[in-house]
What does this fold into?
Amino acid sequence: MAERSQQLALAEGLARQGQVQPAVEACYQALRLDESEALTHCLLADLMLTGDFYDEAISSAARAIEMDPSCSPAYLALGLAYDRRGGMWDQSILVWHELAEVEPDLVTAHVQLGEAFSAAAFDDEAIEAWRRALELDPAEARAMYNLAVAALKKEGMATALPGFRKAGELDPSQDDLFFSLAGICDDGNPAPDPAEVAPERQARLDAAGALAFEEDFFSAAELIRLILDENPEDPEALGLVAYLYLKQEAVNEAMACALRALSISTRTPTAVYCLGVAFSKRPGLSRNATRVFAALAKAVPKQPMPHVLYAESLLGLQRYAHAQQAYRTAIALDPTCVRARFGLAAVLMTEGRFAEAQWEIRRAAYYDTRRQGLFWRLYDVYAEGRA
It folds into this structure.
């Protein structure tokens, strides 16, 4: 038993480090010692899935579930294998339904269930599953993207656009873009206490950015106010103020601050971003948003999100060919960009290319689940419950 445990622990360690082939070999060694261990079969299924060996992943995951019907990470691996293999939507629906019963509060299970229903042309059931996901987590961007795609299929782009905009607001990658433009990153340290910040412009600006990153908008606003009291024409401070207004849905105020910052210095990327977002929130200003996001994409061409924002503004103008090009540019820069893949799927649907659109949605699902580290979260909870 000790030898088996050590071999499985070795396989787990190798898998977590991304050493797939050695981890697979360690799993097979562990199975030779004890073929009845559900955890080993489950881990092997995920490793096979990583290598796109879908049939082998299905076999290993099904074996784990046979040994223990409560093995939630095995259901995840099995459902993803069915989805990526394609053409097995009946089985996929059953698996995601089972996972939703085993883990009723697991939002991704309901999102995936909806996508399986949609692929099998059960549109009403799909919408119900995505709404259930949003009940569990109102900030679940992927469920909102799927609902927007469903609205596109039923009623057209005009009806779907608000859903895409809402999904974009829920997607944290857009805020990540702002902080990247502002030169603010997560260094692992908590934001400073506003009362302890040195009374200097740069110290206050840095602290305000850190507080905004942690969503302490009130404290950030107080520090920015001190900067603007001393210099009302500080473009970087005005850019941050515009962002704070956007987070409070004060679009007109955000627009005014961004315009003021750009009138002082056109080289203020945070203000360009805020102005584009503010324009996009006003339907009558869609053309303005397109021009602003085009300029931002040219200013930071290696960042995928400006191309996504530019593409979304083009959707509103029904310039689908240009939107598709912008989405593909974003995906080339970052293949894991879920938002770009859903947007590209929407464009492909307007052209009647439903099979390609469905493939993009499946790739979005793949990257979203990998980003979440969902398998390992379920695996660790399951293993701990058995200890």
